[in-house]
Fold this sequence. Notes:
Layout: E1 10-11, H1 12-19, H2 23-35, E2 39-44, E3 54-58, E4 64-70, E5 74-80, E6 86-93, H3 100-118, E7 125-132, E8 136-137, E9 142-143, H4 157-164, E10 189-193, H5 194-206, E11 213-218, E12 222-228, E13 231-233, H6 264-268, H7 270-279, H8 287-295, H9 299-323, E14 327-331, H10 339-352, H11 355-358, E15 362-365, H12 372-385, H13 388-396
Parallel strand pairs: 4-7, 7-10, 11-14, 14-15
Antiparallel strand pairs: 1-3, 2-3, 4-5, 5-6, 8-9, 11-12, 12-13
Helix pairs in contact: 1-2, 3-4, 5-12, 9-10
The structure holds zinc ion.
The site of zinc ion has 6 residues, from loops.
Amino acid sequence: MQMFLDGRPRTRSEVVQLTGLARSTVGQRVEALQSIGLLEPIGEAASTGGRPSARFAFNPQARVVVGADIGATHGHVALTDLLGRPLCEIAEPITITDGPAPVLDWLATTTERLLTQSGRDRTDLVGIGIGLPGPVEHSTGRPMQPPIMPGWDRYDVPHHLATALHLDTGFPSDGHAGSPGSATGPVPVLVDNDVNIMALGEHAAAHPHVQHLLFVKVATGIGAGIISGGRLHRGAVGAAGDLGHVAAPGHAQVLCRCGNTGCLEAVAGGPAITASLHAHGITATSNEDIVALVRSGSIPTAHAVRQAGRTIGEVLATCVSLLNPSVIVIGGSLAGAGESLIAGVREVVYGRSLPLATGDLQIVPATTGRQAGVIGAATMVTQHVLTADRIDHAIATRGVIA
Ligand SMILES: [Zn+2]
């Protein structure tokens, strides 16, 4: 099955050649995958004499996934296909400080609305992926001491959603939501922090063949998602990539909301930029204001954003030495300020890193924009459910991908 995920149609003979498996084994496997809808016949291969052979391709429409991007003040939910491509979406204001119950009930209701809108059945849903704006223990789906999410600490997010949506857990002996892998039975609910899911979304949508990628979110806070060897690197407790509170060189006097001084996000995040503009008599109250000012040609704003880019670049130069990525993607709401921010980052990273590490290094803006989170949350689910073991289970239980 895995070889079909690149979207290329193949004949049975091609699969035999690629895998070295017996023809009969391949035939049975193709038939089984067809029976649960994941493969579909799509015409015949051109043949040089003899019987034309049928070609099969992955059918991404076979099931649907919910990808949810929950921010401090916004909720964005998409129903996607099995390649993480949004089919329909709902974005509404929410307030994360209302606590987990109202926010997750909103997500459950929104999931039902999307299923209804798209005419898909609850049984078509293979999983729910959620990004939250704070640290998350991915294995249990619980937020861990999230600074801007009062009431959410260690809250069992998968269990709440499974209950609200009456998700069929399928296996009486499978334990409750939040068991290892945070599977809730046949419909897993997976949770991670917003930057990790944005990294997954940008990687899947724009750089699927890149093995080593660093996604940097620049907004009110600053953080990074690390793709290493093609996989998301979460670290020991899920805190990998938390660059916002790394010391920015030369700013020891700046106070940060975390209680420390000289943190990167206190120096180069959105509020720091608006404060520096205020000193120039320019009023900006949000990241959107900053982006609009740069786009309207405000030179002091472009300078302030470029300087923030340089400060971020100082920290990223260290990351480049440590991780040797081939692509750094700059995303988040301030990435809309375009070249000003990226130019500052490039200036310092290329200037400060060794030529071997930067020879092929690209530093590029994110392409998925506001969709990065929902695409990434859905991708987190598809990567989880489309593994060989889970597909075997689906075949054994006639269609339930768990
Ligand atoms: Zn800090």
